[in-house]
Amino acid sequence: MEHSAHSLDRHFNLPHIREVDNARPLHWIKLGWEDLREHAFASIAYGIFFAVLGYLIMSFAAPRPYLITASISGFFLIGPLAAAGLYEISRRGANGQAADLRASLRGILDSRESLLSIGVFLAIVMLGWERISAVLFALLFPGEIAELSGFMRTVLLSGEHLGFVAAYVMVGAVFAAIVFIATVVAVPMLMDRDTDMVTAMMTSVRAASTNPVAMLVWAALIVALITIGFATMMIGMVILLPLLGHASWHAYRDLVE
Fold first, then answer.
1. d(CA 74, CA 27)
2. In this structure, is residue 64 part of a structural domain?
3. Which of 75, 190, 218, 234 could form a disulfide with 114 if both were Cys (CB 3.0 to 4.6 A apart)?
4. Is 91 domain-assigned?
5. Is the model's pLDDT at 70 over the cut of 80?
6. DSSP 235
7. Residues 6+ apart with CB under 8 A from 120
8. Could you tell me if 17 and 75 are in contact, meaning their C-beta atoms sit under 8 angstroms apart?
9. Which of 14, 73, 29, 64 is nearest to 201 (CA)?
10. Using one digit for the tens of pLDDT, what is the confidence trace for 114-127?
11. pTM of the model
């Protein structure tokens, strides 16, 4: 890991990354909850917006099983960008500035060029995952499934397609890991500092390589909370997405000096 950090130093002017305790992500969740309570209206407004948007996407994709699985995975891929307004709320609150909904939207506009660049990267990853998802279904799944309940019953619960499920999960995990490592602190850093996308993403890579176990714990918490959100038919997302957004800001502030 040390050799990797020195290699990054030769090519990028990166900020110092702190080493944190492996249980530190639990503290980020606690701080995120405090931000959510302090800025409840603006935070929950974002939560409602993305929960409704997610529900509409899921409803559209429900008759197409490969699309619905790609949509669920897509939440993990585009989440870092979607939470930009929540990062701004936490940033402004920490600086003693107005942190209402209008101010957070203004912060997004002020950072639009940087956010657009990382948005293009995430869109390419998302498009690639959707195409690979379709290919995996075409190559490894022999039957036809008309709707989501049939997919759950026939593929996930029957135990007859373990090879397909394993391949699908493994490929999806690779995409998710790439996005997580490249963006874990990148978008909050773009909102907070005058820097470019590549430097922000390389800072994320360094943060992940410096704190591998803490990052695994953080990733597991994100997956668990997002899964709960889906299990509640997106209702839980109204609270869980803002919670994760605020907590991600505190992760950035804790990791990047």
1. 26
2. yes
3. 190
4. yes
5. no
6. T
7. none
8. no
9. 14
10. 888 888 888 888 88
11. 0.84
For 17, phi and psi rounded to 5 degrees?
Answer: -105, 130
Residues constituting the chain: 257
pLDDT over 90, % of the chain:
41
How many independent structural domains does the chain possess?
Answer: 1
Q: Which domain holds residue 116?
A: 38-255
Looking only at Cα atoms, what is the longest distance across the chain? 58
Tens-digit pLDDT profile for residues 42-68: 999 999 998 898 888 777 766 666 666
Does the residue 224 lie in any domain? yes
80, amino acid identity: P
DSSP string, 14-80: PPPB----TTHHHHHHHHHHHHHHHTHHHHHHHHHHHHHHHHHHHHHHTT-HHHHHHHHHHHHHHHH
Query: Is the separation of the CB atoms in 256 and 200 below 8 Å?
Result: no
Q: Are residues 71 and 14 in contact, defined by beta-carbon separation less than 8 angstroms?
A: no
Considering the domain boundaries, does residue 17 fall inside one? Answer: no
152 vs 107, more confident:
107
Token code pair at residue 131: 């195409």
